[in-house]
Fold this sequence. Notes:
The chain is α/β, with parallel strands linked by helices.
Amino acid sequence: xxxxxQELRRLRERLNNALYSQxxxxxxxxxxxxxxxxxxxxxxxxxxxxxxxLSLSRRGIKTVLLDADVGLANTNIILGVKPPKNWADFxxxxxxxxxxxxxxxxxxxLISGASGISDAANLPSYKQEExxxxxxxxxxxxxxxxxxxxxxxxxxIINFSIASNNIIIVTNPDPTALTDxxxxxxxxxxxxxxxxxxxxxxxxxxxxxxxxxxxVFVPMVxxxxxxxxxxxxxxxxxxxxxxxxxxxxxxxxxxxxSDAARQIEIITNKLLDNLYNQNxxxxxxxxxxxxxxxxxxxxxxxxxxxxxxxxxxxxxxxRFCKFFGIKK
Length: 328
Ligand SMILES: Nc1ncnc2c1ncn2[C@@H]1O[C@H](COP(=O)(O)OP(=O)(O)OP(=O)(O)O)[C@@H](O)[C@H]1O
Ligand SMILES: [Mg+2]
């Protein structure tokens, strides 16, 4: 074989390998997939991803929730369930994949976090790909995948983050959290293919601190990192959220009328809205999504009612929505 032919063969193999591994790292390519990520610990990734997954399920959207946290998995606590197996059992203890699927009543299919692995460094990429490939087998039977990503910037944390079509960076308004969010976006910026990158500002206490992020942080990310960061919304600091986590009950069930629960419903609406528009643009609209949007949630309707009555809480949410152009 000539040198040129050998070189061509090597190039083809490299291309095949690259395509193979990229498809293995995108388990829900053709459905709604969202990673809640962000580098810094304790910003609310788990609390928000679990509630959004539940909100989607309650609208009839079949949702898989993967707790991708390695070591400190706690999505099950937020949802108040006790799955007997987790994905470490599947990867390391020969548990069949079907046995790690936990069907939360009126909620998502939960794949519980790998509490058997001591830290993220102990999850080699071939094991992670094994998990992604098994997850992909659920794509045809379900509508959405939510991934709750742990804190940090280790390789497999980044891989979990970019495995979805929509990456939500969860931050709070503190300078340390924003610095970590910026560093995290910088790390993923070179690895993005065509995902959308969103920001949720969690635990916001004043309108002004949210406004500052919108006016300073977001333009800085756009100009310096060339990432088209879009603010998806903000969630108020919420005592109801703190209580719900303590009581191991999901916020949107426990306190559906709280500001934070309403903001979560609004954010879920916006995600579905974006997906709907995106798919319409590519003339590939799944009828189920448009129907869900049209129906809208009962909570949003109640909320609109309260808004028009001018309730104190409603007007606080209203200012956020107006500022961010979020439809209720
Ligand atoms: N909007 C909110 N208002 C008040 N407290 C909140 C809010 N969101 C989350 N919290 C609290 O913050 C704590 C951390 O939340 P959570 O575990 O979801 O963070 P995390 O980003 O998943 O952390 P980790 O990176 O360690 O996985 C929880 O105890 C929760 O009660
Ligand atoms: Mg978490």
